[in-house]
Design a protein that fits this description.
Structural class: alpha/beta
Distance between the termini: 39 Å
Largest sheet: 2 strands, parallel
Radius of gyration: 24 Å
């Protein structure tokens, strides 16, 4: 598994994993005040290279909302549109994608963000005006879905961003020369190895995971009218 973190400067750029996992972790430390333009350009450049290098079979994308402008604990200037643009970009790779929530400490903005990004994932454009609901009072006074960027001083200079990008790209080039984990074909879910109780050594302990593979639920297979195969044949 490969991890990529875009976060505040508490993260260390050169922290790329240990031993066999070295270079399988990418950290992108950013300073206070980063805005939509710089963040999305950097995100797209790095993520495109990450996907090219790792060739992942699936992506888990954690959409922490503490990077939004106005977050109680955050210090970035991202608008909801800028945040959602990153989700839209990852979706375009057409890989299996699991999207989760994350941080976010201004609850009404977290709700805004995840509502809009759910729409992005479902190719559904949501109106900017939030419809009346039991929690509408939390979204006043404008009752709008989208949140503009903030006005914190941007401490991410052009040279700093360039240095970060160059180092991350160098780390990714290292993975091409690092010994990878040997891949093995995963057996299908229905595969159950042969298991002969008569040949089982009574003095040899069988772990619980192995035992569980050989437990058959009473309702797992049917005969007659309730057979799943019959239903499929009739379809």
């Amino acid at each position: 598994m490969n991890t990529i973190s875009y976060a505040y400067c508490g993260f260390i750029l050169k922290d790329t994993g240990e031993r066999d996992g070295r270079f399988y972790s990418i950290n992108v430390p950013l300073k206070d005040g980063i805005d939509d333009g710089i963040f999305t350009r950097l995100f797209k450049t790095i993520i495109a290279k990450v996907v090219e290098t790792y060739s992942p079979g699936a992506i888990v994308l954690q959409c922490g909302a503490d990077s939004l402008a106005g977050d109680r604990l955050g210090c970035f200037n991202l608008s909801i549109d800028g945040h959602a643009e990153c989700v839209r970009f990852v979706k375009k790779f057409n890989l299996p994608l699991l999207v989760t929530g994350g941080g976010g400490y201004t609850k009404e903005n977290v709700a805004r963000c995840w509502a809009l990004e759910t729409g992005v994932l479902l190719d559904t454009e949501l109106p900017n005006e939030i419809p009346d609901n039991d929690y509408i009072k939390y979204f006043g006074p404008d009752y709008s879905l989208k949140l503009p960027g903030g006005h914190i001083e941007n401490l991410n200079s052009k040279s700093y961003i360039g240095t970060i990008k160059m180092q991350v790209m160098e780390n990714l080039r290292c993975i091409q020369h690092a010994p990878g984990v040997q891949m093995q074909e995963v057996p299908p879910d229905f595969y159950i190895p042969d298991f002969d109780e008569d040949e089982q050594n009574p003095d040899e302990r069988v772990d619980q995971h192995t035992q569980d593979k050989h437990i058959q639920r009473d309702d797992e297979y049917y005969e007659g009218d309730h057979d799943n195969d019959n239903h499929m044949d009739d379809a």
